[in-house]
């Protein structure tokens, strides 16, 4: 499942056209593929209104209207803002008329059972003028099934800002998803978003990390493996006031399959955690010891931050471990504004939007409206891997590629769930060989556990400690030979 920005879509179209696959042909494929998918959710007796704009989004609507007419559906094709003006749409309109189907520039009496929005697509500029706004308000008031083509009119393709927008039940995006499908507030207008193949080769920098990816990259362990195979992780977390954060992260690491875990924490926190996590070993006064240069042997990866507050000590620890060639996960209390000096081994930061706002100096609103692009730029500039948490967690890599995770729900909006995720990431980067899929799988599984939990109990009652209780069960479903 691929995600494309407007410029990438235009480039793909241009390359296809230069090599013999014209815009007209793509529009035909788009309209026909839309017809084949949309007819699955239509009733043959439904009255269907297709609202077509003057650009190519409107052209897709024209081709769709032709197929619907051809197959006997009751469809009104309406151009509320005048006849098509783009080349491909105009050609398809000419053909549509030549086969004798009807069209209009004003909406009929209705009522309509289905409204299809083919007004604006990736060519949208905001704000919309008053006549668009009035039409969209009218659409949203109708008791009809609402289907948007490519993106709902009123949202942009690449950013999360929205005007008054078509409130779709379904959005069928052509070639791949557009970033606004996953941004705020735009994503509230998409309804169920699906991607429709139009025959162009898929070559996206951004992808949705899917169940298929998890199954492909996480395999059953060999019977001759031992704890050394799965590495030793160092978790620097927890204080007397916040022992739970170290426990949650520790459970995340151990229950996802780390070989051995050393938890650097306070003696008091260790005494509490050890009752629930006797499998871990403890470095008492860990933060102080690491700050003066002590470092346990044989560590394969390290995570620092959950439940920590002493910035000075954290800075000293980070300075000491910076040169060590092990992946470093930086979270929560360790996520203060820092420069991220060049480092040989990977740095993974796991901010929520508030923490990322402090790191970038941008507002939370700006981040939410543009979380893919901002994380990607930060990853590139600082040479770090960004795991920006929240609905549709973004995982951005320094090479410009990235993943969106779609598992998870509001049950995760609770203290401690981020600590659990940090532990799970530590656990997988220690125990799996490929760091890219290890991080994505940890994020996916963390969300999937929450999805599993809401099947049994209300999201309000779920606490972070429940996540790892179902981790084994969800992994059993996904991990095969
Ligand atoms: N490869 C693919 O995925 C394909 C996608 N297709 C479809 O094409 C559209 C993109 O088509 P494009 O013509 O570039 O753009 P739009 O249809 O979105 O709209 C352009 C017209 O909209 C007018 N516009 C834009 N913003 C406003 C506004 N705020 N108010 C009023 N009018 C607006 C603009 O008018 P101008 O006169 O200002 O230029 C344009 O007329 C894509 O989304 C897919 O649906 C192809 O069919 C197949 C390949
Ligand atoms: K649209």
From TrEMBL:
GO terms classed as biological process: metabolite repair; nicotinamide nucleotide metabolic process
Keyword presence, Zinc-finger: no
Enzyme Commission number(s): 4.2.1.136, 5.1.99.6
Cofactor stoichiometry and binding remark: Binds 1 potassium ion per subunit.
GO MF annotation: an example: ADP-dependent NAD(P)H-hydrate dehydratase activity
Keyword ATP-binding assigned: yes
Domain (YjeF C-terminal): residue spans on this chain: 210-478
Sequence positions that bind AMP: 389-393, 418
Cofactor(s) of this protein: Mg(2+); K(+)
Keywords: ATP-binding, Isomerase, Kinase, Lyase, Metal-binding, Multifunctional enzyme, NAD, NADP, Nucleotide-binding, Potassium, Transferase
Residues in YjeF N-terminal domain copies: 9-206
SUPFAM superfamilies assigned to the protein according to its UniProt record, in alphabetical order: Ribokinase-like, YjeF N-terminal domain-like
InterPro entries cross-referenced by the UniProt entry: Carbohydrate_kinase_pred_CS, CARKD, Nnr, Ribokinase-like, YjeF_N_dom, YjeF_N_dom_sf
Binding site for (6S)-NADPHX: 56-60, 121-127, 132, 150, 307, 352, 419
One Pfam family from the record: YjeF_N
HAMAP family: NADHX_dehydratase (MF_01965), NADHX_epimerase (MF_01966)
Its job: Catalyzes the epimerization of the S- and R-forms of NAD(P)HX, a damaged form of NAD(P)H that is a result of enzymatic or heat-dependent hydration. This is a prerequisite for the S-specific NAD(P)H-hydrate dehydratase to allow the repair of both epimers of NAD(P)HX. Catalyzes the dehydration of the S-form of NAD(P)HX at the expense of ADP, which is converted to AMP. Together with NAD(P)HX epimerase, which catalyzes the epimerization of the S- and R-forms, the enzyme allows the repair of both epimers of NAD(P)HX, a damaged form of NAD(P)H that is a result of enzymatic or heat-dependent hydration.
Description of how the protein assembles with itself and partners: Homotetramer.
Protein name: Bifunctional NAD(P)H-hydrate repair enzyme
Organism: Caldibacillus thermoamylovorans
Lineage of producing organism: Bacteria, Bacillati, Bacillota, Bacilli, Bacillales
